[in-house]
Amino acid sequence: MSNGAVILQNISKSYKTVKALTEINVSIAKGELFGFIGPDGAGKTTLFRILTTLLNPDSGTATVEGFDTVKNYKSIRNIAGYMPGRFSLYQDLTVEENLSFFASIYNTTIEENYHLIADIYKHIEPFKHRKAGKLSGGMKQKLALSCALIHKPEVLFLDEPTTGVDAVSRMEFWEMLKKLRSQGITILVSTPYMDEAALCDRVALMQNGHVMTIDTPNAIINAFPVKIYAVRSNRMFHLLNDLQSIPETEAVYRFGDVVHYLSHSKTFDPLSITRHLDSLSHTEITVNQSVPTIEDSFMLYMRKSDKFNISQHDN
Amino acid sequence: MTTERPKVIEVKHLVKKFGNFVANDNLTFDVKQGEIFGFLGANGAGKTTAIKILCGLQSPTSGEIKVAGFDVYRQTNLIKRNIGYMSQKFSLYEDLSVSQNFEFYGGIYGLSRKQIKERTSYFLEKLELTNEANKILKEIPLGWKQKLAFSVAILHHPKIVFLDEPTGGVDPVTRRQFWEMIYEAANEGITIFVTTHYMDEAEYCERVSIMVDGRIEALDTPAMLKQQYGASSMNEVFLRLARAQSAEQ
Same domain, yes or no, for A161 and A261? Predict the structure, then answer.
């Protein structure tokens, strides 16, 4: 534990009456691509602000490369790269001016570390004389990442880099992260998109200021305690309600073009789904066992405990 | 099974140019009453421009466009009265209470005191928020805010409601509850025009259009689109269309 690149021990933080973080314990290894997965209000941004020394925790300790976030904040600022959730570059400086500004405040130059950002920066270099405010969303994202990398950080903090970004740009962004990881940089990334968890080495699922679980995406999926059945019929609109009325039902919810059905009974026979729907005059019924996803796991953890579930109404 | 429903959005040859840049390049499509219509596209594909035109906030360069039966060139005020709008960013007033937000929007849409009262208690009961009616919005958890914002957007029972990324950043349970509300509204005859970056939500739509570079490249039911592109999910369909575009550039 002690040789982790980033270590959080019992970190808590409140804003007035709101508990933003409750006793967070995480240890992230050097070179790891680690994801904090959760919706708005989970506490991701507060966590990143504490780790980047912009905010002090109420209690607990956190270290980055061995430096304490409160006592040694100056050392952390030299070795951390941070891309905040909101676009925070200078809109009225050009692309190149923004980059050289960030290089110079860290006493380096674009030339010195160009190799680090080359893959990313070459996409926007043709527009280097354009003002940052005039860039498209995808290009802003690439510039912000270049600026966070230009001083060769040991740890990179990316707070929701893909929020509001379309599926194609999101995929391209994750390809860039994989390349960075192969250069040995420790990367912490937060995202509300559950499908992005699969692209991380390990993830923490966060909700309402709590870490619900920490593990590799595969281990989280393998730990899913019950079978999931993907159900379809000719009456998709009625399917949710009609499946609810099966006595062994644990949970029923839409999942893309199917409905996921979970039973709490260990001896559950999926044929009983077909029989039940048949009796309610559904046709074209298909019931297939389905592999759980991180989103299925996330909802399971939310259901398990009220403290994770701020929207509390279950249906 | 499908009786012909009236068209509530009719778009013929919509073109919108900003200088030399063509943001909407000859769009033609219809949306029917009570339909859940997914309006997808990559960032910068031209969705926002088209939505602004359909909401009567911007004039097209050319084309014949009717929304809720009204002309987008001359009858923009009538359009605004007959639509609802909700986005992830702008929704409700944070320092008003829950019921004050209903009152405010009800007033804007010209509902009577009595109507506002009835509709407010209907939605509060449905959301099981009756006890929170006097809470300031700031104190309401995000997931509920989104559901409240949707209720406010359909308070005046509009013909069409435009939802611009309504579920961004929302947890997976609330996201599904939100879609149940969408289904209910559609069932009551309200047409839903929705954009999203969650591709599983594209599957929840009756029909989906995908914009690429100012044009509508595909428009059909999710099932037909998947068949047409030999894809197993809408995510795959989307990536294939939008990726082909970025490879061209």
Answer: no
